[in-house]
Design brief:
The complex is a heterotrimer of chains A (85), B (339) and C (361). Chain A is built from 1 helix and 5 strands; from the N terminus they run βββββα. Chain A is α+β, with helices and mostly antiparallel strands and 85 residues long. A 5-stranded antiparallel sheet of chain A has the order 3-2-1-4-5. Chain B has 8 helices and 13 strands. Helix content of chain B is 29%, strand content 23%. The chains are: A alpha+beta (85), B alpha+beta (339), C alpha/beta (361).
């Protein structure tokens, strides 16, 4: 129930609060572009951020720092560190 | 035509003057050759000894035009490829069109231009044809059927029955390009130009391989609807053999992979219109690969797996992350998913 | 793809598989409750990397598989109304109700359009002013906010030909139903993107009320394997706590603004689950203030009582390991992939569908 893909923000539009222009981001991955809605994203992304896209909406702005830590933890765990203590 | 109408009308299908003008103006001007020109009820072809391959296919793709090709190019390449998959050299094509009343003439002309260009590239003539026009709504713009005959040189035996354990399995290039391109275009998913259909006539490269590697090619199949997965499963069942496939070796364009991830569709299930799976004698698989790489139709050819001596019909996929699972045929139309 | 390829690293998956084998010291059974976990475990062939003593059961986490046949019949009734256009995610089109599926209705002439986003359904409504577009809202906490945003926009634009047939469901109540009474589960792999919306903390009651270790996992192979390693560690110590193993997408309190929008537009309601019957306040219905966008009020479906789950459907027990697919009286007889009674048979990777395909039946 939650097929969602991280994509990079190229452009942000319509976040000026104008009622009729919905908040949008143009996102991209490997040259494939999409327009996604920002109505429900937790933190408004800036160009260069990554957002998780589900059913045409950005659900979450990925935090680069968090992502790097996440990867380091994984590598450590795979090497034998116990992560849940 | 002085009273140049801008669209196809029921008159064009009536067999009367308007119909004859359409054939002259749109078809003969583009597809002209000595056998078609007389517009006889049947074209007559000399029959060499040996065997004749015969195939037919209908094309109802929507939209009619898409990046990388259109219904006209598909209609020629699809049927030419079906002949090539039995090692046959295409001799002649037939062309049948069912046109919805109101189709702009300009659209029909563009399609027939593509048919002419594709036939010329494949080096085969359209020798006979037919056009029918139906009431608005009775067909979706344009349907095309093409049939093809081809000659099979003595001693060439290419069919699933020839597949043997140990055979190398080669895919002639990247998969899913056509299927994802048409889906994205039809559903107007706005993927921004990175996707292109791979429609392409494979008869020249197949003819070259058959000639240089006599007996080296056991079976060929173009993985159109249902994709590479369905085709592998079909061949495994028909040939009573088992297979192992390595996902890492299956060529896939990055934008196609991303579009499939976004839509939740497995690229192994999407149609290809310019690729084939080759089941080859392991002794010459390396040479065949090199030959393919030298040809426009095989630049990214890759050895993706091996026929094994296991349970008939069983296709095992070694995934890119060192997992393993059974490959299954497509059960229904691949549709965008959220889950 | 950045933030994807790193989590599909072959060597990392292999070393996590060894770690998993070390951690699983006795037979363990985990339940994953997300269709996307089910699909990716199958797609990447991860089951072949699980140690023999580890069983991972597919729970009722696929929104399509839990949609009751009575609800499918309601969608078909709407589709047969000729001034209605049904807009639906592709997942739902082939699932059978008691008299066929939406795909069959479309073949008989009903207007059924596949959409990728609720926003596409709004576009459809704009393009067909003479028709009433009914968007079939399926999905759990991850998808509901996107539908709420579409309803909010339709309200802002005062669109009168768009409404939602809400079949949405939420996770917590179904756990209560499944885990009440004895269950043979040692841990729960929890859905990452549901947690992206509701937050890690929302899963605490599961660990406390049922004494079950819970790990919130992402969906790439590395995410799934490392979540299972952590779950196995907790299970070994029988430690009932909720670990967030998907920190790049899940925060302590999730995306509260998205969930607030959901609670503005939807309210809890009892819902029918295929094979599990009615579960109290497990569904979401559109609030009165947005009645104009509620398909159940825009179209008068004769309120035929929902078909009771056929007696003897034991999907709940299969999921919780209280019985195996073959122990269910319907398995292979009145319940087959072609005519599925419960979610375990609808989902191509549900326990019963997988057993039917590979097992001896």
């Amino acid at each position: 129930m939650c097929l969602a893909i991280p994509m990079r923000v190229l452009e942000v539009r319509g976040t000026g609060g104008d009622m009729l222009e919905p908040p949008l981001a143009v996102v991209e991955a490997e040259g494939v572009r999409r327009e996604v809605r920002l109505d429900i994203v937790d933190r408004l992304p800036v160009v260069g951020d990554y957002v998780i896209v589900h059913a045409g909406f950005a659900l979450h702005s990925l935090d680069e720092q968090q992502a790097r830590e996440n990867l380091d933890l994984l590598a450590m765990m795979a090497a034998g560190g116990d992560e849940t203590r | 035509m002085e009273n140049k109408k801008d669209c196809v009308t029921l008159d064009h299908g009536s067999g009367g003057l308007a119909a004859r003008e359409l054939v002259q103006e749109v078809f003969l001007s583009r597809l002209n050759n000595s056998r078609l020109a007389p517009l006889e009820d049947s074209a007559v072809l000399p029959v060499a000894n040996g065997r004749l391959a015969f195939t037919t296919d209908s094309y109802v793709v929507d939209p009619l035009f898409f990046p990388g090709g259109d219904i006209g190019a598909l209609a020629v390449n699809g049927t030419v490829n079906d002949l090539a998959m039995r090692g046959a050299v295409p001799l002649a094509l037939s062309l049948g069109l069912i046109i919805e009343e109101g189709l702009p003439l300009e659209v029909l002309e563009r399609v027939v231009d593509s048919i002419a260009a594709a036939a010329e590239t494949a080096g085969v003539d359209v020798v006979t044809g037919d056009t029918k026009v139906v009431h608005r709504g009775a067909a979706d713009k344009l349907f095309i059927n093409t049939s093809g005959i081809g000659s099979i040189v003595e001693g060439v035996e290419i069919s699933p029955g020839q597949v043997r354990p140990g055979d190398g399995i080669i895919l002639s290039g990247t998969m899913a390009d056509h299927g994802i391109t048409v889906l994205a275009e039809r559903e107007d998913l706005g993927f921004g130009g990175q996707l292109r259909s791979d429609t392409f006539a494979l008869n020249h490269v197949v003819a070259a391989l058959v000639e240089h590697f006599p007996g080296g090619i056991h079976a060929l199949r173009d993985p159109t609807r249902g994709g590479v997965a369905t085709t592998l499963c079909e061949i495994a069942v028909v040939s009573g053999s088992s297979m192992e496939i390595w996902e890492e070796r299956v060529p896939l364009n990055r934008p196609v992979a991303v579009a499939c991830e976004i839509l939740g569709i497995d690229p192994f299930f999407l149609a290809n219109e310019g690729k084939c799976l080759l089941f080859v004698d392991p002794a010459v698989e390396g040479e065949i690969l090199k030959a393919l790489h030298r040809h426009p139709g095989g630049k990214q050819a890759s050895l993706i797996g091996r026929v094994t001596d296991g349970e008939a019909g069983r296709v095992v996929l070694h995934t890119a992350v060192a997992g393993q699972r059974l490959m299954t045929p497509l059960t229904g139309d691949p549709l965008p998913r959220i889950c | 793809m950045k933030h994807v390829d790193e989590y599909r690293d072959r060597e990392l998956v292999k070393s996590l598989a060894f770690r998993l084998a070390d951690q699983v010291k006795r037979p363990l059974r985990f339940m994953e409750v997300c269709g996307t976990h089910t699909m990716n475990i199958f797609r990447f062939g991860l089951r072949s990397l699980f140690p023999a003593d580890l069983e991972v059961v597919s729970g009722p986490g696929c929104p399509v598989c839990v949609t009751d046949s009575a609800d499918i019949d309601v969608c078909i009734a709407a589709a047969e109304n000729e001034n209605v256009v049904i807009a639906t995610f592709g997942d739902l089109v082939r699932v059978p109700g008691s008299r066929g599926s939406l795909a069959e209705s479309r073949a008989r002439g009903a207007r059924v359009e596949i959409v990728y986003s609720p926003i596409d359904a709004l576009e459809l409504a704009r393009a067909h002013e003479d028709k009433l577009v009914v968007f079939v809202g399926i999905g759990f906490e991850t998808t509901v906010p996107t539908v709420a945003a579409a309803v909010a926009q339709a309200a802002r634009l005062r669109m009168d030909n768009f409404c939602v047939l809400s079949l949405h469901k939420v996770m917590p109540p179904v756990f209560a139903r499944l885990l009440a009474g004895n269950h043979q589960l040692d841990g729960l792999l929890c859905p990452g993107h549901v947690a992206t919306i509701v937050g890690r903390r929302a899963f605490e009651p599961l660990a406390l009320d049922y004494g079950l270790p819970c790990v919130i996992g992402g969906f790439e192979p590395v995410d799934i394997m490392q979540a299972l390693v952590q779950l196995a560690e907790l299970a070994a110590r029988r430690e009932a706590k909720v670990v967030n193993a998907y920190p790049r997408a899940v925060a302590e309190d999730g995306n509260s603004s998205a969930w607030r929008l959901v609670t503005d537009i939807f309210q809890p309601v009892d819902a029918q689950w295929r094979g599990l019957g009615t579960i109290k306040s497990s569904g979401l219905a559109i609030r009165d203030v947005y009645a104009a966008f509620d398909a159940r009020r825009r179209l008068d479906f004769e309120t035929e009582t929902p078909a009771p789950p056929s007696t003897g459907c034991r999907c709940g027990d299969v999921i919780c390991g209280r019985c195996r697919p073959v122990d269910c009286g319907h398995f292979g007889g009145s319940c087959t992939p072609g005519h599925p009674l419960g979610p375990c048979m609808v989902s191509s990777e549900g326990s019963c569908a997988a057993f039917y395909r590979y097992g001896e039946h």
